[in-house]
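fwd from M.: "can u put these together and see what the complex looks like"

so here's what she sent:
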Amino acid sequence: MANNEKIDVKEKKITAKDYATDQDVRWCPGCGDYSILAQVQRSFPEIGVPKEKIAWISGIGCSSRFPYYMDTYGMHGIHGRAAAIATGLKVARPDISVWVATGDGDLMSIGGNHFIHACRKNIDINILMFNNRIYGLTKGQYSPTSEKGKVTKSTPYGSVDYPFNPISLAMGADATFVARSIDREPKHLKELIKKAADHKGVSFVEVFQNCNIFNDGAFSVLTDKQTKEDHLLYLEDGKPMVFGKEKDKGIKLEGLKPVIVDLKDGKHSESDLIVHDEADKNPVKGFILAHLTDNPEMPTPIGVFRRTEKETYDGGIEKQIEHITEKKGKGDLEKVLFSGNTWKVN
Amino acid sequence: MKTAGYDANPLEDETLTGHKVFQVPITSLTSNALEETSLSPKDVQRCKNFFALGLMYWLFNRPLEPTQKWIESKFSDNPEYVDANKKALKAGYNFGEHTEIFTTRYTVEPAELEKGTYRNVSGNEAISLGFLAASERSGLPLFLGSYPITPASEILHFLSRYKNFGVKTFQAEDEIAGITSAIGASFGGSLAITTTSGPGMALKSEAMGLAVMTELPLVIINIQRGGPSTGLPTKTEQADLNQAIFGRNGEAHIPVIAASTPSDCFYMSLEATRIAVKYMTPVILLSDGYIANGSEPWKVPQVADLPEIKVEKRTDPENFEPYMRDENLSRPWAVPGSPGLEHRIGGLEKAHITGNVSYDPDNHDYMVRLRTEKIKNIVNDIPPLEVDGDDEGELLVLGWGGTYGAIIEAVSQARAEGLKVSQAHLKYLNPMPKNTEEVLRSFKKILIPELNLGQLARLIRGEYLIEVESYTKVKGLPFKSFDLKNKISELLGGSNGK
């Protein structure tokens, strides 16, 4: 080795590129997944967890290819089971930041059970669900989030099935962090990923994602420049619910019924509107928000619907182990083997 | 009568021909013995069991004191019951002594056991202790992912007590989450196990394939019960052998081992762990309802005498490739938290060495053979099949799993009748010990008793092209050694043991 070689002591700055693998990304050109991947890779340097402490777990579907493109630990699991694999990893290794990349088919259909139980248990994992309202990998069947009447390969005369409302489902299962963003809202999505990472407990982020092959334009009204501002409601903690190109419309509650009011009609002001409270312990307003779009006149909320605190399952297990070990002393195998009714043969 | 399994009174038909039958009017004798108590006639009749027990104690020359003491503590709240039950016990004993119908008494000498400290252990308890020990001997934290199911739930109960050993038990939302959470924990570096019974095995099979593909250590414990479907949850059977060996999509070979007695469950748990971590593979450990719930005296081993389970986790990032293999064809176990070893695994076919997703036909062919060879090679790392009795001869009784007790009892009865019969018990079902074929070919006849319709028999025929005699029962009950002895006798040209 040459003596004059200098050792670079400057700490290398981690950037989005450091999270990219050498694998070719194989999603269809134009797929919304690319944007989600880019926002995750951009947000992770700011989240600040060293990459060897991160694991991405997925199930099956287009979205579930995600771990192959993240230079962290990763497992591409089996259909629907990502949340359960992630749960086992997190319980075994609370020191690891565990992320789940999944889709509406993977999480809402075959993996529905694992999803609600991960929410219920408040496992400290982060679930990003790419919702394109279609089965892409299997080439175009309707999904549990497809709208009623949807014409697909498996529903040539239109689906007679009702869709899940993933936000409502997550809240119904008592998830402590419930949020929504859109593949075409990069800044919003990036900030939401960081908030999900910050949250201690289960984080559920639904990302509206365009499948330009099998369900193109499913969210176009929310992403086209001309229409989006009149159809999106950006949720901001502590702020009244104002929306519209001119910021001239708001959501007011009449009893439990949300109504749109005109802020320019001289009869209403921002003080009439619902003030968003992410940490509201009463779930009623959260459900009203989740179901806002049941009325097609209403804007679609994006942002954090709920962010509350309670002990995590994995944290509870650690605490119990600590407590019992303190009480009983560290386990002694010899003692356990020789416990109970023993007798000697001489 | 029905409860005892008889359609008609066996005293009145031929059922008991060949047995010496003594009829004892227990009801009236108990009433007479308790004439002076103030108990109701109904309560008096409830003391019959102690009369019968007292009679047995006389017959087998056993002391009454331990039971008398037990009665005193059991009914300590009710002196009348203590008095009545003790009287009934004594009356039964005295009946034996004073009645002249009995001419013989038996004395059972203490069993000849090796010196040491003993305890009773059930199979499920032994499995729990076995994995606790495996965790200690391997230095790996224990993780159990499990969904309650009869007759396996007890393992979840037992292991949940050992929090101060750092044991993590996860009662999952379903069978699939039971195994997949364990796969996640294994990825994280734990000694990961999942416990279940037949229907749960069926639900776990896709995930077993994932463990095969990701080559992660995992132990799947199946406490077999009567099947198919919900079947007979509380009854025993050995009908999941095919499922254990073949029950997955694709070429998904998994080592399968089976415990033969309750205490053997302890050692087989350690062995399952050794194979899983050494060969980076899921391992199926079979037990059954009979040995899971049955218990036997167990000479408790010293911890230091237990085998150490060597585990090497990869920490060196230099030249790391996730599917590079060692001399055992095992890939490295690199767990999250190790800098420079970030890698991705999954259920899609993996390219040799790099572990990248690969659709290359030659690579797939190569990897399928490689994974299979890895499991086949375990044959060089397991003990040979041992034969009890002559190494060659007319008849070998070959068993596996929890029928061990009934088989050795039947063989010893046959030998007592002067029959020449050898016996061997397979603890390793996949792969089978190296000398299996040699052993089998040393006998003119092979008898394979199984609590299924001949699953091991079919495996043996398929593997070695050796004809075997399959003897099967699927009643949800263990074998009766008497029936089995008759079969042995019949095969050796006897007249059905009569």
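replying to her w this: Chain A has a mean pLDDT of 95.
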